[in-house]
Every structure is written in structure tokens, then in C-alpha cells.
Amino acid sequence: MRVKWLAAAAAVLFAGNAYAAEVSPAVIYDIGGKHDKSFNESAFAGEEQFKKDTGIGYHEFEIQNPSQYDQALRNFARRGYQPIIAIGFSQAQALEKVSKEFPKIQFGIVDATVDAPNVRSLVFREEEGSYLVGMLAALKSETGKIGFVGGMDIPLIRKFACGYVQGAKAVNPKIEIFQNMVGTTGDAWNDPVKGGELAKSQLSRGADVIYTAAGASGLGAMQAAADAKKYSIGVDSNQDDLHPGSVLTSMVKHVDTAIYSANMDMKDGKWTGGAKVLGLKENGVGYTSDQYNKDVLTADMKSKADEAKAKIISGEIKVHDYTADNSCPM
Amino acid sequence: MSSPIPAGPDRKASGDGISAATAEKPKALARPAPDKLPAWADYALLPLINVVAAFVVSGLAVLMVGANPLEAVKIMVFGALGYGEGVGFTLFYTTNFIFAGLAVAVAYHSGLFNIGAEGQAYVGGLGATFVALALDHFLPWYATVPIALVAACVFGAAWAFIPAWLQARRGSHIVITTIMFNFLANALMVWLLVNYFIQPGTMDPASRPFTEGASIPKLGGLFSLFGADLGAAPLNLCIFLALIAAVFVYVLIWRTKLGYEMRTVGLNPTAAVYAGISTSRIIIITMLISGALAGLLALNPVIGDQQRLQLNFVNGAGFVGIAVALMGRNHPVGICLAALLFGMLYQGGAELAFDMPQVSREMILVIQGLVILFAGALEHMFRPGLTRAVNMISTPQRRRMVEAGEASR
């Protein structure tokens, strides 16, 4: 009902607005920056893909401090860019304000929900993808010990960790999971040396599969696992080709396709506001299987993961979302 | 115990014997041009030359990425000063930098290098937030804000107290301890925000938004009386607080007994002890004042702008304060001007990144870094040349004075 209403509203908007059909996308990266090897970069990839396919350029801005959230959104909105996509939950409050001031401009936000008719909220079920790679890690582990290296101790990363733990325990309830965070400042996303050190420490305690959710810091952890001839799991984008034979799989979060299709919808006049929750079912998250990891990811493991995937989609397995109540049952 | 700061020509600038030194400097050093400049050249011309040099080098960098440097300067200046909202943002950042610069400068006068303004401001924000969360439903803003102000000062000062005590009583170097306390502040705040302040069901590690009861009026209304439209700029009453703090620092350092003691300890701790001044007492008091000033910084972003406690809200302002203090010669007037320059760089830089896609966020950092490099690290690069030039054109009268001084000796 609500969706229908929104679609109708959108249709009216397009009919009355001359440049609405003329898509001129803008993207506002979060403080992490465009090249964070993580979701900001994934957003960048989505915009680049759109530019390549359609020849329509886009505008971008990298936030330097929180006071700029409002400013950047308004600057783009005032110049009539749309859709304007804000990356990261930190921009939610600013977007709530600005989307009301510019009801005719269409906005998007990744990783947060803003309840306004002209905002498309793109939220991912990271816990579902993490559950699957947690299972794969537990299936691969010979020592019964696995590791997790997070960037910063914030709810988003705990959400990854919580899904991972649930998946691993579903396979082996006695499994031991080491969890470490790289740091307490924004630098935590960009410190491969520290990421590597944490991974080495976990490896020396007996872990043989390490999952990272730490932006560029994770690259260090994956290097450490490759050096020790152990396994690692990449995150956000497909990182299987970094160390073939050592990267077990990657938990991909398709920010790029979400943004690409947002722009495409705008171009084709199919834009809708409202929340889009992208989980396994919507192919918003998942694990990778390609020529780089075919030697380490066995058919047996894959079939077990796919079985769980089907059950999660059907609702038979419920993966707890850490951010729903800020706690993890495990 | 000994004062950590290297003595430089700067040192004299912090005293008030500038004019006297020009004439009475003994010629025994055999250097033809003593490194003394008339005050106008020292305080205005030299910083100006430094900034211009920084911009010339930045211009080359902008040219290298294929953009027009003149166009870039135009966008930056217009973005920072050309319209109401830009001015509002510029002054908003300026407010932060004044507080941070004053905090660094106060410590510097006692020979202490406070690198910890960042952490002290962060923890100061915690104090302000406690008050705001506790009282915003019960009291109007003009009652809440003064209490929050005191809390921010107390928390900032408390965070500076431990490094100060360690320096005064145990000789642990204040530079190291204050840097370390920045990391401790980060860890503490992440822990508090993620585990206690966060609202259930949200991703954002931030406290709940404050109500009207804990807000600081924006200056949009005031400016509109003069026909200026500040737009959505977060400029608020805190800027007046910053200016009051600058006056306070001036009076404290140059017009009180305590300030005299602080400067004495900074110039020569051994002599200070001989004169009956307790250096450890002065170190601790200085750092408490410095930390309190840094804590005040937090009011501007936390209560004045965002109205909630956020992760990393200080965002480097405490570190910029070091450059601001260096550039402003540790004098409140200089600090206000340097803070304004950095405010313009911040706001103009954002505008530049917006309008010139070739100029990335990192390029803006390069430009800001060059200004810091030329104004801080290379501060004395042009000094010998400039001194010679100034001496060459200086009036024969001064030369006569110097000669007369020598003859009478």
C-alpha cells in the first residue's frame, strides 16, 4: 500500500519536474574517504560503472568533518543533482533534515534508514552474509579455532562479528573465536600493519581462518594469513584474487550494484523511495566462489552453505541482527 | 622537570622587551644583522610572506593536478568569505581553532608543549554532554549552558591534570604523555559511546539529541539584522565566548602575577626556582588552564552545532591549534587571526573540493599542510633575508642610535 503510494508520488514528481528524467547523480562519501577499500570505494565503483554504461557523469564529495554533512547535501540539492546518495549511517540525521527542505529532490542513503518519501534507504543484512562465511570458516578450520579482525568497535562491525559467530557455532558449537579490533579512531580502517599484527597473534594462538571487516586494515590481516599458509576471508568487495589459495572466500556487500540500480531506476523513471533491505534473498550480500578460491572452497562446504542460505531466505534459520537490540546472543 | 621547549627567537617575542633588544644587543656576536625585526615586520609582514609562499607552492601543486590555481584561489576565497553561509562556516571553524590555539599557547608560555588539546576537548565534550543530557528537559538553555561550560572546563582540565602531574612530579615528558592521553581519550569515548550513550536500534555511536534546553543560539538572526544571510551555517554564540577567552588569556599572561610566574618558568625554570617560584605548582596550574580552554572547544560542536555527542567530533581541531598558536606567536590577537586563516582554509577548502573535481580532499590537506609547514616549521626561513632587507631600508636615525649606544659604552 505504502509502496504504491510512494510510486504514485514519484510518478507525479517525474511528470511535473523537467529535469527529473535527466539523471545527474551525486555521491557523498563518509569520513573514511573514497578509497577506503570498503563500502565507500564500493559506492565509487557503482558510480563509475554507471558512468561507463550510460556516459552520464556524476559529482562527488568527501566529508572531512561532521559539520559538512548538511552543507554537502544542501550544496548538491540546491544545484539540482539527483539522486544524491549519502554513504554511511553518520549522514542519516543530516539527510533527515535536508530531505524535508528539498522535497522535489530524490536522495539515497546507504547503511541507515531515513523515513521520508524522497529518500531511498539502502540497508544490508551483513549478518546473513557473515553467517555463511562463519559456517565456511568453521568447516575449513582444523584446529577448532578461528579469528575475527574488526576495524573499530562500533555497532556495524559487531553486526558482522555477531553473524560470523552465529554461523561458526551452528557448524561447531565448541568452536573458539578470537575477536580483535584494530583501533579506536578513524585510522583503524587504514592500518594494515596493525591488522596484520592482530592476525598474527590470533594465528599463533591456533586460529587457522581469519575473517576481516576492517577496510584497508584487513589487507594486512589477509597478508599475515597468506604468509602463515592459513586462510582468510575478505569483506565488502570480492577480494579472492588477493592471495589465491589463501583467501577462502569474501563476504560481499553489493553497495555498488545498489547504487548502480538507484541511478538506473532514476534514469528509467522507475525510482521509488522507501527502505530497501538487501539480504541474501535480494542478493545484496553473499559469499564468493570463483576461479581464485576453487581449490580451497570444496563442493561439500559450498553445498552446506547454500543449504543454509536457502533456509535463511525461507526464514527457517533466523540470524540475529546485533543492531536490533545492541546485543549478541552468542 | 626541566622545561622541554627549545628556546628560539620566538622566545623573545613572548616577552615585551622587543624594542629594547634592538638597540642594546651587544655587538660582540659579530653578526652584522641581529635577528631582530621591528614588531610590525615580525608580527605582520613575516607571517604574510610565509602564507604567500605556502600559497605559491600550493598553486604549483594545483597546477600539477591539472587545475587552474588562480581559479582555485578565487573559489576558496569566495567560498570562505564571499557569501553569508560561507562566512558562517568559516567563523564556526575559527571558533574551534581559537580555543585550541589559546590552549596550546597558554601551555607554551610556561615552556610546556601541550599536544593533548585534541583529547582534552574530546573529554570536555563528555562533561558538557553529561550536563546537557541531565538538564535539558528541566532548564532553559541559558541555565544549562553555563553549567555545561563549567563541566566542559572541568573535564578538559582533569584530562590535562594527569600529564601535568606526571611532568611536575615525575619528570615524564609532557609531549609524550599528552600524545598518549589523546589515544586514551579516543578509547574511552568509543567505549562510552558504543556501550552506553548509543540509542538502541541505531548504528550511529552517538548520544541522544539534546532538546532546546541544551542549545546555544545560532547567530543567523543577529546577522540578518545587518542584511546578511548565514543560511544553515552553525555559527553560534560560542564565537563570543572564544573572544572572551582570548582576552582572558591576554590578561592572565601579561597582567597578572600568575602569568608572570608562568612566563618566568617558561623562560628559565632554574631562575624561577631561585626566585622562589614553585615550578611544579606552575606546571600543574598552567596545564589545568590549558586543558580547560581545550575543553571549552567542545561546546561549539557538541552543543552549538550537532546537539549530541558524536564519535570524533573534535576532528583534528586540537592539532590545528598547535599550528594556530605557532603562527599567532602565542599572542591572543595573533591566535585569533591565525584561527581565522585556518577557518577560511577549512571552509574554502571544502568549497574547492566541491567545485573542482580534480582537487580531492587530500589536495586540500596538502594546501593546509603547506601553510602549517611554512608558518610553523619554516617560520624562520625568510627571517635573515627579511631582517637584512628591513635593516637596509631602515632609517639612518636608528643607525645613529646604535652607533651612539656603542660610543657611550
UniProtKB/TrEMBL annotation, chain A:
<keyword id="KW-0732">Signal</keyword>
<feature type="signal peptide">
    <location>
        <begin position="1"/>
        <end position="20"/>
    </location>
</feature>
<dbReference type="InterPro" id="IPR003760">
    <property type="entry name" value="PnrA-like"/>
</dbReference>
<feature type="domain" description="ABC transporter substrate-binding protein PnrA-like">
    <location>
        <begin position="29"/>
        <end position="321"/>
    </location>
</feature>
<dbReference type="InterPro" id="IPR028082">
    <property type="entry name" value="Peripla_BP_I"/>
</dbReference>
<protein>
    <submittedName>
        <fullName>Nucleoside-binding protein</fullName>
    </submittedName>
</protein>
<dbReference type="Pfam" id="PF02608">
    <property type="entry name" value="Bmp"/>
</dbReference>
<keyword id="KW-0449">Lipoprotein</keyword>
<comment type="similarity">
    <text>Belongs to the BMP lipoprotein family.</text>
</comment>
<dbReference type="InterPro" id="IPR050957">
    <property type="entry name" value="BMP_lipoprotein"/>
</dbReference>
<keyword id="KW-1003">Cell membrane</keyword>
<dbReference type="GO" id="GO:0005886">
    <property type="term" value="C:plasma membrane"/>
</dbReference>
<keyword id="KW-0472">Membrane</keyword>
From TrEMBL, chain B:
<feature type="transmembrane region" description="Helical">
    <location>
        <begin position="282"/>
        <end position="303"/>
    </location>
</feature>
<keyword id="KW-1003">Cell membrane</keyword>
<keyword id="KW-1133">Transmembrane helix</keyword>
<feature type="transmembrane region" description="Helical">
    <location>
        <begin position="333"/>
        <end position="350"/>
    </location>
</feature>
<feature type="transmembrane region" description="Helical">
    <location>
        <begin position="87"/>
        <end position="108"/>
    </location>
</feature>
<dbReference type="InterPro" id="IPR001851">
    <property type="entry name" value="ABC_transp_permease"/>
</dbReference>
<feature type="transmembrane region" description="Helical">
    <location>
        <begin position="362"/>
        <end position="382"/>
    </location>
</feature>
<feature type="transmembrane region" description="Helical">
    <location>
        <begin position="174"/>
        <end position="198"/>
    </location>
</feature>
<dbReference type="GO" id="GO:0022857">
    <property type="term" value="F:transmembrane transporter activity"/>
</dbReference>
<protein>
    <submittedName>
        <fullName>Nucleoside ABC transporter membrane protein</fullName>
    </submittedName>
</protein>
<keyword id="KW-0812">Transmembrane</keyword>
<feature type="transmembrane region" description="Helical">
    <location>
        <begin position="309"/>
        <end position="326"/>
    </location>
</feature>
<dbReference type="GO" id="GO:0005886">
    <property type="term" value="C:plasma membrane"/>
</dbReference>
<feature type="transmembrane region" description="Helical">
    <location>
        <begin position="141"/>
        <end position="162"/>
    </location>
</feature>
<keyword id="KW-0472">Membrane</keyword>
<feature type="transmembrane region" description="Helical">
    <location>
        <begin position="43"/>
        <end position="67"/>
    </location>
</feature>
<feature type="transmembrane region" description="Helical">
    <location>
        <begin position="232"/>
        <end position="253"/>
    </location>
</feature>
<dbReference type="Pfam" id="PF02653">
    <property type="entry name" value="BPD_transp_2"/>
</dbReference>
